[in-house]
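Appendix B. Chain record.
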Amino acid sequence: MSNKRYGLGYERKRKKELEQNGYTANRNRGSFGCFDIVSCKKEHFLLESIKSTKLKYYSFVKEIDEISKFDNCPKGTIKRLVLYHKGKLKILFEKVV
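Structure tokens predicted for this chain:
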């Protein structure tokens, strides 16, 4: 299984999780941009970048920096970097604009 296919499965899984939690979620297909999933509730927008790895050691410093600098969104928007490490969800970065 390729890395892109492996990550795609987690993007789909995360989208379903968000929808079960009351969000309207959209996955950005084929996106090489900053965020993979854009979702919203009445209270706020949620922008998530989804990463996945099986590696023991990993670093997403570049991705965290890119997400933290992104400010072209309404106040109250939540920005997140979500990691699925060996199938377990970890939130590596979260910031409210």
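Further analysis of this model is presented in Appendix C.
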